[in-house]
Amino acid sequence: MKKIMDHIGIAVRDIESSIQFYVNVLDGELIDRYISEAVGVESEVVILEVNGDRIELLAPTNNTTSPIARFLKQKGKGVHHIAYRVEDLNKALSELEQQGIRTLPETLRTNKHGRRLIYLNPADTEGTIIEYCDYPESDVLL
To answer: How many domains does one find in the chain?
Structure first.
């Protein structure tokens, strides 16, 4: 199945200064900003576009339960995940299972933009957090 880069998620401590950097230094455009208090997310999300590429800035809203807070404590700020868009998330999950690649089932969800997503288990991806996603309600094709 074809996979294309969808976005890069970046864990940040200070979302305001991070926005300023991406807008003023990299000439990015602010696309959306929202807070997700869903269990296992608990983060403020800022979506930017920089020269046609999407960036998600992620800041924890709960320093005890947010996975972004845990990431910042363990690894510090920086790239949190790389997301790949697939045509059909269900088919992609079947392919992963056949290849022996595990996912983190508790991360399966649909975000406010209709993007269905799941994270692959970093133990099976050489330590990189990889997201697979699709947009079932969109006419955007791969």
So the answer is: 1
